Amino acid sequence: MKTKNRLAFSFLITWVCTCFLAVTIGLTSNPTPAKADVIYHAFDECFANVTAKLPEVEAAGYNYIQISPPNQTPGREDDACTSDKYWYFQYQPYDYVLEGNLGSEQDLKDLIDAAHERGIKVIADVVFNHMANYRFYKDVAPFPEAYPLYPKKEYFREAKCIADYNNPYEVENNWLCSPNDQEGLPDLRTDLPYVQQKQHEYMQKLMDMGIDGFRFDAVKHISVEDLEKIVEVIPEDKFYYGEAIGRNFDESMKYIPVFPKVTDFQLVNTLKDAFSYGGDLRSLVNPADSQRALPGDDAVTFARNHDTWAPRQFDNWKFDKDDLVLATAYVLGRKEGTPLILTFDAFEPTIVAGTKFHEEMIAEPQYYRNGNEIADSADSPNLLFIERGDKGLAIINKSGETFDVTAAKMPGLAVGCYDELQYDFEMCVDYGGDGQKYINKWGSPNRGGIEIGPRTALFFVKNDV
User: Fold this and answer.
1) Cα separation of 411 and 431, whole Å?
2) 1-36 in b/e burial notation, b at 16+ Cβ within 10 A?
3) Regions of the chain short of the pLDDT cut 70
4) What are the angstrom distances between the C-alpha of 155 and each of 69, 117, 127, 362?
5) Which residue among 170, 202, 288, 396 has its CA within the 20 to 30 Å range from the CA of 81?
6) What kind and span of H or E run contains 458?
7) Chain centroid offset of residue 298 CA
């Protein structure tokens, strides 16, 4: 997915074509890893619009694009190319034909080809748990004859709404409904070979067009055994992950190794605590060690995605605007995870700087520097220092006040000068008379130390990297 001269992020895929056997007898394997870096989530964007935006996407440093489900869905009452009001229609498949609200098959092919010319890869969102609400098709044919691919009742589970989301059996076998829609979404028998075959054919068609990977929607609503069968046709060089809104660490990890990665909602919860009023950024030091985030190799990371963005949905995970930017800066400043950046956030200057930092530092190790090692007043719940090897540094200040010290040590960075990627100034590090390393230039040659404004993130990269 990257340009030819850029370093790629690699992760261990624990699935092979014989994954069902491997799970059964407890084997593991080490196939050639797929590669990914920062994903631009072109949420509910028409394909032609994304194609037109490719120069901006490339300039911002994104090297994967994730599109919303491209298959045919119910017709929308808004213009999908200018409105996101009825975005959720895209998650209700009617057919696996590539003629949907977001564009035609040719529009999608044009996007894939144009993205590849720029070294950008494209991920397709796929929805295999259910089909569209039948109310849209009552005038077409009786249920389920209206659905071209699945015209028999035997392809669907019994029409019962999920009543208890803490009951795994109900979650996997009953229909998704809502208080305003007790008819719900017809739940597919994903255990049936015929259903799996049609889903395989759909994925193969997308791959034949050049799609480079997949996001699998609502994987908690499909059994692990069925998921293993569904993903078995995906080659090892494709990037794919599962959307698992895990209630806890163990529930999220349940879907590894079916998927190389899953969505890290544990990290979102941890970020929300840290960036809320009274929260402590120091709690973000290595959160996976205490199961407050997923292991980096297993995680697609974000401060918000379209689930938490959606109105009246997951409100407990919503950030205020400034906190959202800083939380996303953390996601991009750390080594772990494959960051996913939502359309609405992707071109904010701090996030663009963080995206470029993440790409530059992709191969560098990580160390959270204790503020006491930098300056007496730097050990604070409002400050976080993330070193990337000896070549990069991210600093986050969530306070409403400027942090300003005229003398600051920088023990982990190499001697030399560093470019700040958002505000375009230089920081230099050199040895002081006591043999320790200090910041001896902060923008101006006449000033050392650190000055970081309120509610700000800075990203420094050694200027000879």
Assistant:
1) 10
2) bbeeeeeebebebbbbeebeebbeeeeeeeeebbbb
3) 1-35, 465
4) 21, 41, 16, 45
5) 202
6) strand 456-462
7) 11
